[in-house]
Amino acid sequence: MKKVKITVLKTTLDKELAEEYGIPGLMACPMLKEGQIFYADYAKPEGMCDEAWKAIYQYAFALAHGADSDLFYYGDWIKTPGVAICSCNDGLRPVIFKLEATDEEAKIDYTPLR
Predict the structure, then answer these.
(1) Quick one: what percent of the chain has pLDDT higher than 70?
(2) Helix H or strand E segment including 7
(3) pTM (2 decimals)?
């Protein structure tokens, strides 16, 4: 299993939807910042938003285990092998992530219970 580099590409705010459904003064996600980098393997990286991780972990897991972008959506999605562009599931202020497979081996730092 390899580590996956996760970069925050963009924090967004859909102003039209935020005006209609959001609280007054709603802004882009306050938890993550553009350019922020995390490394993941089998577990959520420290400092990563729980909800964002739930939305992107399946792509991180697949990339960590050798999948490339040809396997995502039948090869008609991302042109660069080993890359996925994903977002969290906040409909008013989604955060966009770039996930990249690396050559760095992941280290499992726990002992399974039996």
Answers:
(1) 89
(2) strand 2-11
(3) 0.87
